[in-house]
Amino acid sequence: MSLPNFFIKIPYSLVGPGSISKLPELIKEMDGTRVLIVTDNGVKEAGLLHTLIESIKNSGCHYSTYDECMPNTPSGNIDQCAKKAIEEQTDLLIGIGGGSVIDTTKIVSLLAANSLEMSDIIGAPTMPSKALAKIIIPTTSGTGSEWSRLALYTDEADGRKKMFRGMKVFADAVIIDPELTLGMPQRVTADTGIDALTHAIEAYTSSTAHTVGDSFSETAIQMVSCNLLRVYNNGKDLEARYNMSIAASLAMEAMTVEGGGLAHMIDASIIAKAHISHGAALAIILPHVMEYDIPANVDRYARLATLMGAKMSGLSLDEAAALSVQTFKKLCSDLGMKHKLSQVGIKSDDIPAMVENVLKFGGARLAPHKAEDITSILKAAL
Ligand SMILES: [Fe+2]
């Protein structure tokens, strides 16, 4: 009998169209008097910052804005934002944006509450003892960072992607308002949607999957499979945006509860080489990770194909499992995504260095996968 140990925490979340209007009440409930809004230029240009500020004005609190968050969350950029939070004597952070903005906000909450800089906490044996309160408002449907205990960043000292994790990293409150995602560009919609689907698939097929985690991953897989193409073809489809917003958060919860997979360990070396988005790299590599993984987990992959909406009648278990890969590839193709490493400029000569990178940064999490496994997956993806 399997009796898995796991932890679960879902931040307090206001979900639904127009839920951003509840922000003033939330600020009051959280005793926010000096708010720093953390965001990026994309959110500002999309007009979402204006919407947010109009809402905050009703709360009567003092507010200021840091709108210079950068993609991939560079450490120096986080320091800049933390400096502003400390100077402004901020007592509540509001992060509105995609994954990089959310991760910046989470890390700034640790730095500002303890008057620290990134160099004080990178590689430190323990996490800072306090964190500023933070409200997270995602404007994409993909990373699921709003519900995760992780915050990713790029350490500019060595160029590596790293992360902080722990209880203090969790958002104190989340607003998931699908109306904020209506203007998301088509390419970002596809890339972030595939990221969410990959979280759910990697959680569902992980060796540590269990019934509770499955309740999140199965729902997320079904919701993304039914709605991603809909929002790709019509970004103004509020019902499909609503479903994608919820699916992205559920997919991250699945990954938090059940664990991740190999595609998320390999994709960083693809991104470093090809300079493509996280979702675009996953679209290329996940089918090959799935093919590699199927022999050890045929039942799960057959069920996965069903969850993704594939027609299964008359198929053997092996055929059904293989159909999960074809179904994922078909979705990516319908979303106009590339499916080979060679299409993004990666050559076979690049593979040894990429494998080395994966092994170097994957650490213990990679076990039991070896260099030859990663090599064969990357070669198959060429
Ligand atoms: Fe991801």
Strands ordered across the widest β-sheet: 1-8-5-4-2-3
Give the class-level CATH name of the largest domain: Mainly Alpha
Quickly give the CATH architecture of the largest domain: Up-down Bundle
Strand content: 5-15%
Computed CA radius of gyration, to the nearest angstrom: 20 Å
What is the structure about, briefly put?
This protein has 382 residues and is of the alpha/beta class.
Descriptive overview:
- The structure is a single chain.
- With 382 residues, the chain is an alpha/beta fold.
- The chain folds into 2 domains: 12-181, Rossmann fold (3-Layer(aba) Sandwich), CATH 3.40.50.1970; 193-381, Up-down Bundle (Dehydroquinate synthase-like, alpha domain).
- Helices cover 52% and strands 11% of the residues.
- The protein has 15 helices and 8 strands.
- The strands form 2 sheets. The protein has a 6-stranded parallel beta sheet with strand order 1-8-5-4-2-3, with helices on both faces. Strands 6-7 form a two-stranded antiparallel sheet.
- The radius of gyration is 20 Å and the shape is globular.
- Bound molecules: fe (ii) ion (FE2).
- The site of fe (ii) ion has 4 residues, from helix 7.
